[in-house]
Amino acid sequence: MSSSNTDKVPDVAPTEDNPAPPPAIDGQAVTGAQSAGVKAAVQRENDQSPLPANEYPSGMKLALLMTSIFVGMFLVSLDRLIVSTAIPEITNQFNSAGDIGWYGTSYLLTMCAFQLVFGKLYQVFSVKAVFLGSIFLFEAGSAICGAAPNSIAFILGRAIAGVGSGGITSGIIVIITYAVPLQKRPKYQGFFGAVFGVSSTVGPLIGGAFTSKVTWRWCFYINLPLGAVVFVFVLLLLHVPARPKEELPMKEKIQQLNIIGLLALFPGVVCLCLALQWGGTTDAWSAGRIIALLVLAFVLLVAFCVIQVWKPSQATVPPRIVMQRSVASGFLVASCLGAHMMLIIYYLPVWFQAIKGDTPLESGIHLLPMVIPLVVASIVTGQLVSRIGYYTPFCVFGVCLTAVGAGLFTTFDTDTPVGNWVGYQIIYGFGLGACTQAPNMAAQTVLPREDVAIGASLMFFGQTLFGSIFTTVGQNVLDNQLADRLAGIPGLTPDIIQGTGVTDLFKHVPAQYRAAALKGYNDSLRVVFVVGVILACLSIPASLAMEFRSVRSKGQPGGGNTDAVATAEKGKRAANGEAAAVGEKKDPAASS
């Protein structure tokens, strides 16, 4: 056998059952510490190498698999807001007006708390098993909500569905890494962004239609047949090659989950979400309960971070991932995007209903000028990134455009013409579509495939958590502004302002003061939009900090860490007595 054959790196990563032979130097096998070093370098390269072309699904199999997981994403995103227009009818049936806050919070709370955990589960256990388990939890929670006999059962169902949704969102990115080569992923990520944007905005419309035409219970029953289709197609079509960590004994797998860290993360996120839910609404921010929750959240989340540094090999979010430049900046971009997107999507319909007199259905329809450009830009950007290779320029362009669009919303007045609010939404929506998938693409490009699950979970965690936080911040800003600006108007007491719906508020205003009340409400909403502008502007420096990396660079895997591959190559060449010149011959795109 020739030396060149002996030196060849196997296409499939070595396993315990099929170990790779050590490379040879001048026809002799390498032994001892030198062999161990070479094996480590070769193993690193194999762990990060793309699958052979024939391992990726294609044709109808790929189309069905992608369609099924996008349906799953649609259902998960839909469930965040579909309940908003159904809440009045649900509270009427259960006589549970005091539980309104829990109907949305219970879903987002468990989704946030378990988001990072699923990133680790996908790394240690079978991808297919974890994803199917997540679908099962989401379906079970939806069934409980649909059949709920009382408010407590409904809240429990929402919490269970939230756990499943956390696993589905992270799992979709992981599945894409095993179904599509890196250079082709951006176009599928574009469809992913389009699905997310559409479902986030049409949720209230669908919820209102079901509630008024059939029953609110169908807001949740609709998940059952569609979720079952997703379950079956993923079960039959998804193939993920065996990975080393899946072969670990169960005891070691559990140790990898970093239970101590989770004991700090779960209650920390719960305390933070509860404080934000209750602060300024059921309790004053200065109330002892709110202060205690915020202090506990701070202590527990700091403890979680310390544990990650203390035990990096078992960390839920390893420091080496968080400190990676593109991952850190991508997390900041995702957090800011999630925050201002939820703020705009939540409070723009309020402006339409309060200032323009729209019905809930009409206000949802009037969001289409934002939704359509979002979908178009997301798909077009995905196609362009696949062709060009670079996602960072589109991210920078997109966040700048969203900042402009969000800034234009602050110019709204009581007589803003249709052309203006349509045009402003087009600018904002197109910007969102151009940049919303960049953080996930960054994680897939710069991280080894085994770490993509954690990187993707981190992005979704930031997007979901900060979206929840700033929706609450927006509510507190609006309440405080309304209290200041409407206080002098006859007929409007603080209790009426705080406890009356958007459109019913003006029924308490004498006709001669209606214009002043409208102006006060409009100006209050403009301050809320200012918060969105600040968040959009903060995402600009974060996007500029992203590395200029290409998804088309050779050697990049399902997260193409080209430098790690080059290091492995150097190790092999050094072991063979060859000149290790890989560093000088790296792909220019990767070194940018």
From TrEMBL:
Q: Where is this region: Disordered?
A: 1-53, 552-592
Q: Does the keyword Transport apply?
A: yes
Question: Which positions fall inside the Major facilitator superfamily (MFS) profile domain?
Answer: 65-551
Q: What does the UniProt keyword field contain? A: Membrane, Transmembrane, Transmembrane helix, Transport
Recorded GO MF terms:
transmembrane transporter activity
Question: Per the record, where are the segments of Basic and acidic residues compositional bias?
Answer: 583-592
Q: How does the UniProt record describe the way this protein sits in the membrane?
A: Multi-pass membrane protein
Q: Where do the TM regions start and end?
A: 62-82, 102-122, 129-149, 155-179, 191-212, 218-238, 259-278, 290-310, 331-352, 364-381, 388-409, 421-440, 452-473, 527-546
Q: Which GO terms describe its cellular component?
A: plasma membrane
Q: Where in the cell is it found?
A: Membrane
Q: Which SUPFAM superfamilies match?
A: MFS general substrate transporter (SSF103473)
Give the matching InterPro entries. Answer: MFS (IPR011701), MFS_dom (IPR020846), MFS_trans_sf (IPR036259)
The answer to whether keyword Transmembrane helix applies is: yes
What PANTHER family does the annotation carry? Answer: AFLATOXIN EFFLUX PUMP, PUTATIVE-RELATED, MAJOR FACILITATOR SUPERFAMILY
| Name the UniProt record assigns to this protein | MFS toxin efflux pump
Query: Organism, per UniProt?
Result: Coniochaeta hoffmannii
Top-level taxonomy? Eukaryota, Fungi, Dikarya, Ascomycota, Pezizomycotina
